[in-house]
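Q: What does the assembled structure look like for these inputs?
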Amino acid sequence: MGEKRRFSNYILEIIGIIISIIILLPFVLVIFNSAKKSAEIVISPITPPEKWSQLFINMKNVINNANFNYWRAFFSSLFITGVSLALIALFASMAAWVLVRNKTKWSNVIFMLFVAAMVIPFQVVMLPLISTFRTISQFTGINMLSSYKGIIFAYLGFGGSLSIFILHGFIKGIPYELEEAAWIDGCSPEKTFFLVVFPLLKPIHMTILILNGIWIWNDYLLPSLMLGLNGKIRTLPVAVSSFVGSYVKQWDLILTAAFLAMIPIIILFIFAQKQIIEGMVEGSIK
Amino acid sequence: MSKKKVFSIAEIILGIIITVVTLYLNFMGSDHSMRGWFLIVGLALILLGLYMLPSERHNQIVNFLFLLPLVLTFLVTVLIPFALGVFYSFTDWTGVSYTEFIGFDNYIEMFRSQDYVYSFFITLIFTILNMIFVNIIAFLLALLATSKVKGRNFYRAAFFLPNLIGGIVLGYVWQFIFNKVLTEIGPGYMSMLTDPNLALLAILIVSAWQYAGYIMMIYVTGLQSVPRDILEASEVDGANKWTTLMKIKLPMIANTFTVCIFLTLVNSFKQFDLNLAITNGAPSRIVGGKPIMSTEFMALNIYKTAIAKNRYALGQTKAVVFFILLAIVSLTQVYISKKKEVEM
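A:
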């Protein structure tokens, strides 16, 4: 029995290693070929590079390339994702709390609207969205299309539904007695929320930040439509796409750009593996 | 009246004045560069005044202020564009304006155009194949990742990783793999992306590669929720691994299967990023004497109709039908889950 179990474990281990290699191979190919000159890729795209130092030369070239502007794109992505996430976590918690604690017809209607809207695909709103934002910009003079405030505003709108839905479920489980005690002590509703309720939401905020964060960071369609492929502000996916468009088939540059675009998330994943996986899985089941 | 009350009422009145004046200027067609900021300041003053106002209805005011940010953004980015979008599909909208209401003309043109009908069927084929592939692979990976094998956590992380990188970046990487790496296998070996059927297979491969790790983790969560004492009891009764899997684990995670199947259905149907970055619809295929983009899924077809061909009303019409199809799938899921809950 023991012999047999050890043997089947060996086989499982070998299968696991083979599958891991297959799954990770594309990443390995990116790293290999980011460290080659264009001619070297054409000769042998599979072998490790001759000189790893070429990696840094390629990286330097791509980072400083005027068509890519890595650091600008990186910080634009970081700013848009960071501010959107902070505001979604704050505003969705506030809204969900009001919707849970006020059992009126109105709060029911608003909640049902948010839930129903989760079915709406981006494609059906994207064209009128752009024209609505353009109209608002022209009418009020607040630039909504190619500005940080505009795209963050849009992410609040799109991220709100799922976030409110998840928070609503969580807040329902918080015993009302906790808040009641604060009420009796004469706390105003906003104080009750920020001092008593908000700190309790920490675990579920993690889920919300991860779910929205991965999506916003990788989103291509919304920023490409709102900010434009060659606009003043570009997120990383948009910058990569526009870079590929201007250097067709120059695989050394394209793969280095892809490598640079992947690095931030891979580093984040190495440090927060468990939280990221748990957050994304939890969000999907709800 | 207390000082605070006077102050907050003054604030509200000042805010209303600024807002009304700015709106008046806007209606008069002013293009003063500061008018946007004035409007924001005016509205902010009203809200701040409302918040500070000592009132018996303070609770209701706070409720209103707490709901405002998300309800407003949701209204402007989702609900209003959605309603406008449905409306525009019945007009000759150009992306900026429309001149007349044309009834169902867009819908008729859409169903008559070959590229749309083709795109519909190729999306359907992709969605069903992708759902099957992803779920089978993900379930097998989940069995591996919950077995007693060494290094389980490493496998889970490795399988999950592709899901974190955006489809656009991964799409370009895989385009390189199909066009430059896999053609190295043998002399005269053509890239898969030049053949209509193989190009579809290529997108299926990348999609399964990217997505299976994510679905795997949902199956892992399901498998881990099977109570250990039941598994031990079956082992004591002499059930082998296969019987345990078929008779105990599978029936107990039936719900997880429903979740995963619908999740993959919806996400495959909405596939856009990989489609754009790997094939961008190419290569073309001759259907009924006309060349048609062979791997242009519905999301990409909508995008190209509107943006590349500048047919906004037609693109919007396709998007409305796209929404209806997705809504049917989602409602079916809700119906099935509700029915299961009743049975349990």
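The two ends of chain B are 62 Å apart (CA to CA).
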